[in-house]
Amino acid sequence: MTLPVGARALRRADGRVEGVLARDLPHSAERVWAHLIAPEFLPLWLAEGQVEPWLGGFARLDFGQSGSAIDSPVMQAIPWQALDYSWSAPGEPERPLRWRLRTVAPAETRLLLSVTTPEADDPARALGGWDAHLEMLAAALEGVPIKFPFQHFQAVRAALSLELRQSELQAAG
User: Fold this and answer.
1) Which of 9, 143, 151, 170 is the most buried (most CB within 10 A)?
2) Taking Cα atoms as reference points, which of 120, 107, 124 lies closest to residue 161?
3) Cα first-last separation, the chain
4) Model confidence, pTM
5) Looking at residue 111, what is its pLDDT?
6) C-alpha 67, offset from chain centre
7) Contact criterion met (CB below 8 Å) for 1 and 81
8) Rounded to an integer, what distance in angstroms lies between the CA atom of residue 56 and that of residue 101?
9) Is the dihedral of CA 95, 96, 102, 107 positive or negative?
10) Residue 47: which of 57, 58, 60 has the closest Cα?
């Protein structure tokens, strides 16, 4: 089965799963970066909070009733290019997020998001959720924020679950 929209790669290692999600966005890297870090844009596609875009800053996001609060140090921040933090609450396993922005034209940016989770966390659910939030980001960049696209999330989660099961069977046989 072909994965919907932006899932590009899955890799298993050491009890963790990494997925890379991609979007080509018709906006400058500066505009996309602003949506990744600015408190006024974050609620439009992700959650209330702030991301301090410097090494040693913090990503603090509150997903309210739908999830836990993220409170993670920023591990890398290169304006308009790279941003790394974990989407973990204090005391939880690390779940690294690695955002990469690549300018492909003057007003077009390729956004790559690497999401790593422990296998026990249901990686398909995590990746499906982040893929849905990237749909919300694309809409927010267009000035038409949308609610969480639950059907999109379900489709991506189902496709990724199938791919993960198939890779388990291939590894076992």
Assistant:
1) 9
2) 124
3) 20
4) 0.91
5) 96
6) 15
7) no
8) 20
9) positive
10) 60
Task: Tell me how crowded residue 6 is: count the other CB atoms within 10 A of its CB.
Answer: 21
What's the rounded Cα separation, in Å, for the pair 44 and 143?
Answer: 9
What are the tens digits of pLDDT across the range 93-141?
899 999 999 999 989 999 999 999 998 889 999 999 999 999 999 999 9
CB 83 within 8 A of CB 36: yes
Q: Which two tokens stand for residue 87?
A: 């989407």
The pair of three-digit structure tokens given for residue 117, joined into one six-digit string: 């989770």
Q: Which residue matches tokens 């018709």?
A: 26
